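HOLO CASE FILE
Compound: uridine-diphosphate-N-acetylglucosamine
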Amino acid sequence: MRVLLTGGGTGGHIYPALAMARELERRSRDHEMCYIGTEEGLEADIVPKAGIPFECVNVQGFRRQLSWDNVRTVKKFVQATRRSKRLIQSFAPDVVIGTGGYVCGPVVYAAHKLGIPTLIHEQNVIPGLTNKFLARYADVVAVSFEGSEQYFKRAACLVHTGNPRASEVAAASKVNGRTSLGIAKDDTKPIVLVVGGSRGARPINEAVVHMAPRILEQDAFYVVYVTGNVHYEDVSRQLGDVSSRQLIVKPYIYNMPEVLAASSLVVNRAGASTLAEITALGLPSILIPSPYVTNNHQEANARWLEKQGAARVILERELSADTLWREIREVMEHQSRREAMRQAAAKLGQPQAAGRIVEELDKLVNKRGVH
Ligand SMILES: CC(=O)N[C@H]1[C@@H](OP(=O)(O)OP(=O)(O)OC[C@H]2O[C@@H](n3ccc(=O)[nH]c3=O)[C@H](O)[C@@H]2O)O[C@H](CO)[C@@H](O)[C@@H]1O
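Model generated. Tokens follow.
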């Protein structure tokens, strides 16, 4: 099968697309892949590293309020649709998959106009603007949560699949995760992983920098701290030479499934792909939802896990080195609380998601007579 993938801006849209690509490859070597993204999105870095040929189009997102900038957005959309059509005609895919982020708009729309089967995947309960727009053109809309159907009333076919990234992390090797961090095989000290979403988060960085002396004073666990690529230099300067003891500092982690599998507690934003990952692994978490997202959807994500007893939530306005350290210590010092959170998280996991979505793809493509 020839598969064209698109999705981007942030990791939460890119990794589900890559997880589908890997599931297809796991089932058969007989697939050709190509990915369309933007030059500025994280996909320009992540996708070539995943070994998938990468092409760019130039698009920008819509502003929700009236703005002249939206005129430029429409112009770019029209140009990007034209370029997408040329790229699609030259690659000749059997199916086009979009996983959200504004780059999907022109690509999936162009595929629809060319009569190529299309599937879009939504990671969040409340969909993004692009997927809402595309729902009326896509042949299949795959959603991660019950509750999303109300936003996709115009979809021709809606299926519940979960987030394919869940399957990828569920199969990841814990041992590889530890060794990739430079931790010796016979060292059993647990890992607390601190991340600020796929781009890093300044408020989380500030809290961790102020927490660093306390992390270094204890010897009960490692803190693996991911700053986000753009913040790394700044954070390293503030921290000085502390890395390599109990505090392991990284700009970005490319083998996140393995590192997650090796962790005992995760501190993170509450993006939808992160949630799919921690529930697939049954990982206790402390979630600090980003307040800068549409409809405050990350807080809704985080509260959903908190309600089931799987996570603790710190709102950004309550975040400080003190609150974060207190929550981390509480979870790490009480094995029974950690175990209860682990079990609650595991109940919500959907490790079969990639298989389900690939079955939908097969159905879609076979219906059009491609084998
Ligand atoms: C600010 C913003 O708009 N955030 C949105 C974005 O977030 P963002 O991309 O941060 O969201 P997620 O937390 O859902 O996904 C991050 C992904 O990046 C991976 N990762 C992260 C850091 C790292 O060093 N290495 C790595 O591989 C994670 O494992 C995960 O797969 O998309 C999500 C899914 O549509 C939304 O729910 C979020 O609200």
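CASE NOTES: The first helix runs from residue 11 to 27. Residues 278 and 345 are 7 Å apart (CA to CA).
CLOSED: yes
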